[in-house]
Here is the input.
Amino acid sequence: MKTIDDLDVSGKRVFVRADLNVPLNGTTITDDGRIRAVAPTIAALLERGAKVVVASHLGRPKGAPDPQFSLAPVAVRLGELLGRPVAFATDTVGDSAKATVAALGDGEVTLLENLRFNAGETSKDDAERGAFADRLAELADLYVGDGFGAVHRKHASVYDLPARLPHAAGLLIEKELGVLKRLTEDVRRPYAVVLGGSKVSDKVGVIDNLLGKADRILIGGGMMFTFLKALGHEVGGSLLQEDQIPVVLEYLERAKANGVEFIIPVDTAVAGSFPDVKTGTPVEDFEVVDVDAIPAGKLGLDIGPKTAALFAEKLADAKTVFWNGPMGVFEHPQFADGTRAVAQALLTASTPPGDAFTVVGGGDSAAAVRTLGFDENKFGHISTGGGASLEYLEGKTLPGIAALEA
Ligand code: ADP
Ligand code: MG
Here is the structure.
C-alpha cells in the first residue's frame, strides 16, 4: 500500500476521503476527535503544496441534502485546528464544489458538503456508485484514503473513487492498521476484549474470530442481555436479540472447549424507561439489581457495581486490551459508571500499572472516554473506527483498504 510519501502532490489537487462523522448537538460539535485525527494528513499535504479537497459523510441523510447533517460546522473546526481558512463547498459535485476547487491555490484547502447528500455515495448499484465516483474524480488529480471509520463501507468515495485516481493511504489509516496488526500478530497475553454498545448483531460476529485469539471476553452494554437470556435469565424490557441466542450458546460452548473465559455481568442498573440523555434529568425509579432479579417492567441500562469490580479484576493483569462499545448509556450520568470503571481499569492494567497495550475502538466508545474526562493520551490508541476495527479483527476484507492496496 502506497503512503502519501509516494505521491508527488505539489501543485496537484488531492482528494482526501476523511471520516469527519462527529457527534453534533444542533450545530455544536460535542467531540472533535475525528477531526483532530485526520488533521495531520491534511497539514502534511498542504505543507507540500497540494490543493486539498477534503470530503466526508456525516450521519445518515437519505441521499439528498438535509441541513441537520451539514458539514459546515466541521469546516469551521477544521480551520481552527489547521490554523488556516477552510473554504466550504455547499454541494459535493455541483457548481459550488467545482468553483471552490477551481479557486484553490497551492497549499489551500476546501471541504465539500456531506457526501451522503448524493444517493450515489452509498448505492448498492455499482453503476450508480460509479457514476458518482466519476464526477468526484473530476475534482482531483490524486486520491488519499484516510477515513478509517468508513473503510468497511463499499461506498463511492471509499471504494470506487480510488480505482479512478492514483492513490495512497493517509497517515491515520497507516497508524490504525499498525495498531490492529498488533492485536492480531504476536499479541502480549493475557489478551482481554471488552465488548458493549448497542449494535448487538454487528458485534456478535466478531466474537467468532476472537474465540481463537483472546483469553478473556467481557460482555457489557446492550449485548449482555442476549447473553443473560441465553443463560436463562429474564431481562425485562432490555435490548435483546432473541435470534442470536443459539449463536451465543454456541460461543459459550466453544469458549469452554478453547479455554477462553467469558465474563458475563452479575448485576445491572435498571430503570422503567430509557433516560433523557439530552437533559440528563435524573431517573427516579433507578435501581441496581442482580441479573437473576431484573423486574419485568424494567430495562437494563448499565452494568452494576459488582460487575464493574469483577471486570476491573479481570483486566488488572491483562497485557493487551481491546475495548469496543460503552458498558451502558453513558450519555446519561446515572448510567455512566460502568463505562467509567472500564476506562479506569484499562489505564491501570498490567504491571507496572498502565503497562498494558490498550486500544479503544468505536465512535461512541472514544467519545465516552473523552467526555467522561479521561486523558486520551494515556491509552495506547483510541481508534476512530468501531465497525472498521471489528471487521478487521473478524478477518474480513475491508473495501476501502483493498481499494488502496490495488
Ligand atoms: P461504538 O460507537 O463505540 O461502536 P455503539 O454505537 O455500538 O458503540 O454503541 C454506543 C451506544 O450504546 C451508546 O449510545 C450507549 O448509550 C448505548 N448503550 C450501551 N449500553 C446500552 C444498553 N444497556 N441499552 C441501550 N443502549 C445502550
Ligand atoms: Mg456508535
